[in-house]
Structure formats: structure tokens, C-alpha cells
Design a protein that fits this description.
Length: 359
């Protein structure tokens, strides 16, 4: 036995102390074991969290990629689009002073309605002169035709006298001098010449009547041009005419915009192959955010927009840089979708269009 055991047998207190001493290392060992094993749990949780994040990112990326692929194979869209319509520029066909303006800006007008009037006093005077000239030409024609009738009578009598003289000249028993025969023949020639001249005068007089009639018709047409009328039903815009203005032929006075509108969408030439008439279209108008409209493709332009430019490109000269061309596509609204926006969707407004190319 060692000294410690001997002491434990003789001293109970020492035994209690020994128990405390022998049990202390066990507690420290357990504590150290707990302290060394606890850091493993956060590492495992972090790995699981990282894995879930990566899986979520991959799933989200895959879903976004599939959505984008499905979108690009189902829709063709562009924001290079605008509302178009029939805009009629109204101008005058004659020079004159404005005497009356009957419309105001944005007013609704019907086809053929009088928009303004020009001063017609000068033309009215000219109209009276033309009427008088026509009446004079008619009277002259009637006079010449009466002269033709008289000349025909004279020529007929001269022809009868000549026939009688000709018969007598061959009759040996008849007393007719050679001079009388020549006088009858001369009278016939004069009568025929006068008749032909008078008939020629009839042709000239008829031509004068036609000229006077045309002149009168021209003046009446000029008078009709003093009333400036609407070429179609619509609303008045860009009004540039006031009473007292002096206007010239071809001068723009105002515009009439018809209510019918459509969309001109300029798609890239690489997208045209997938577009065809009848495809459905979704439309949003920048002026009405949150509102969605529907339509359909009606037709594709026969040439790119560059070909209709004032100076179309000529790629055969100079350096060449390839540029993707834009081809206009006409899209018409569904009437039901814009019923509540009649007159509010106007030409020139910017729109965004999406054409469904796959069902």
C-alpha cells in the first residue's frame, strides 16, 4: 500500500478530501469534451444554408431562363411604334382674302361642311361679264345662222336662174344672149361663195359660244372655290386661318383628322419572318398607363422605312456599314378595346406592341 491509502484508513477526513481530488479531473475532462465538440454544429448548418442558397439561385436562374426563352419564342415586341391616322391638310385653290371663318380648333365637322369663305365680290363681277359674253356669242351665232338661211335662198334662186339660162342657151329658138348666160353663171358662183363664207362664220360663232361657255364655267368654278369645305368627317386641328388673311393657292389653312386610327410599328428586319397578317397583338399606350388594348396585324410594308426616306441610302458608294433595317407593320385596334377611348387615342402617340407569334 502507498501512503495515500494508509492515510485514508486512519483519517476519515483525508478520505473525503481524496474523493474530492479524484473526482475533480473527471469534471474538467467532461467540460473540455463539451467545449471541443460544440463548434462542429454551426459549420454543418452553414453548409446546409449555402447549399439551399445555391439551389435557390440555380432554380431561379433556370426559371428565368425558361421564361425568357418561352417569351422570345411566343412574342415579338417593340417600342418603336406610334399611332397613325388620316390627316387631311386643307388649303385654298385660289388667291383671295378670308371673309369668314366658321370653325374653331378641335371642332367636329362633317364631310362637305363649309370651314371658311373667301371674298367673292371680284369673281361675282367677272361672273356677270362672262354671262354677258355668252349671251352676246349666242346672239351672234343666231344672227349668222339667219344669214346662212338667206344665203341658201339666194344661192337656190341663182342656181335656178342658171339652169334656165343653160337650157335656153341650147335652144335654137330661144332668144338669150351670151352675156345673159354669163351673168347667170356669175350670180350662181357669187351666191355659192357667200353661202360657204357664211357657213364658215357659223363655225367661228359656235367656237365663240363654246369659249364663252367655258369661261363662264371657269368663273363659276372659281366662285365655288371661295367656300373652303371639309374633305372628310373629323376634327379640326392646326388651324392657321383668320378673317382678313390673304391666302395663296396651296397654302395650308388647317387640318381635318379622321377618327379612324391604327398603329405603325417599326420591327427589325430580323423579326419580320415571324410576323404575318392576322396575328393577335397586345398594345399599351404611353398616354394611358395601366390600360391594355388589343389588335391584330393587318399588313407589312412593301419596303423598309429607309427606302421611303427623302434621301434613301446607296450602299454601292463609299464605305459600307451594315445596319439592321426597320420595316413598318400596320396594326389595327380591336374596336371593342378602344370604344371608351374614342377621340382620345390620336395620331402621333407612342405605343408599345407585343405580337403573339405562337399559340
Amino acid at each position: 500500500m502507498n501512503a495515500t491509502n494508509i492515510q485514508a484508513k486512519t483519517d476519515p477526513t483525508a478520505g473525503a478530501e481524496l474523493k474530492v481530488l479524484t473526482s475533480a479531473p473527471l469534471t474538467e475532462t467532461r467540460t473540455n469534451t463539451t467545449e471541443t465538440s460544440s463548434p462542429l454544429l454551426p459549420n454543418r448548418n452553414q453548409k446546409i444554408s449555402y447549399g439551399l442558397v445555391i439551389a435557390a439561385v440555380l432554380l431561379t436562374t433556370g426559371a428565368a431562363g425558361f421564361y425568357w426563352w418561352n417569351y422570345t419564342h411566343t412574342w415579338v415586341s417593340t417600342n418603336n411604334a406610334f399611332v397613325a391616322g388620316h390627316i387631311h391638310t386643307v388649303s385654298t385653290r385660289i388667291a383671295g382674302s378670308v371673309s369668314e371663318v366658321l370653325v374653331s380648333d378641335n371642332q367636329q365637322v362633317e364631310a362637305g361642311a363649309v370651314l371658311a369663305r373667301l371674298d367673292a365680290n371680284d369673281l361675282k363681277v367677272l361672273h356677270e361679264k362672262s354671262q354677258a359674253a355668252l349671251a352676246q356669242a349666242d346672239a351672234q351665232l343666231a344672227q349668222i345662222r339667219a344669214q346662212v338661211t338667206r344665203d341658201e335662198t339666194v344661192a337656190s334662186k341663182a342656181e335656178s336662174d342658171f339652169d334656165r339660162a343653160n337650157k335656153l342657151s341650147h335652144d335654137t329658138n330661144a332668144v338669150l344672149s351670151r352675156q345673159e348666160f354669163e351673168d347667170a353663171k356669175a350670180a350662181l358662183d357669187v351666191a355659192r361663195a357667200s353661202l360657204n363664207a357664211t357657213k364658215a362664220s357659223v363655225l367661228a360663232a359656235e367656237a365663240q359660244v363654246k369659249a364663252a361657255t367655258a369661261q363662264l364655267a371657269d368663273v363659276e368654278l372659281q366662285l365655288s372655290y371661295t367656300e373652303i369645305v371639309a374633305p372628310a368627317a373629323g376634327r379640326v386641328g392646326r388651324k392657321n386661318i383668320e378673317v382678313g388673311n390673304r391666302v395663296q393657292p396651296g397654302q395650308s389653312l388647317l387640318a381635318v383628322v379622321q377618327p379612324d386610327v391604327w398603329i405603325t410599328a417599326n420591327f427589325k428586319e430580323t423579326e419580320i419572318a415571324r410576323l404575318k397578317a392576322g396575328q393577335s397583338v397586345k398594345v399599351t399606350v404611353d398616354g394611358f398607363p395601366g390600360q391594355h388594348f388589343s389588335g391584330r396585324v393587318e399588313s407589312v410594308s412593301p419596303a423598309s422605312g429607309a427606302q421611303f426616306a427623302l434621301l434613301p441610302p446607296d450602299n454601292a458608294t463609299g464605305n459600307f456599314t451594315k445596319i439592321v433595317q426597320r420595316v413598318p407593320v400596320k396594326i389595327v385596334f380591336d374596336a371593342a378595346s378602344i370604344r371608351d377611348f374614342s377621340g382620345r387615342i390620336v395620331p402621333g402617340m407612342s405605343v408599345n406592341v407585343k405580337v403573339r407569334i405562337r399559340s
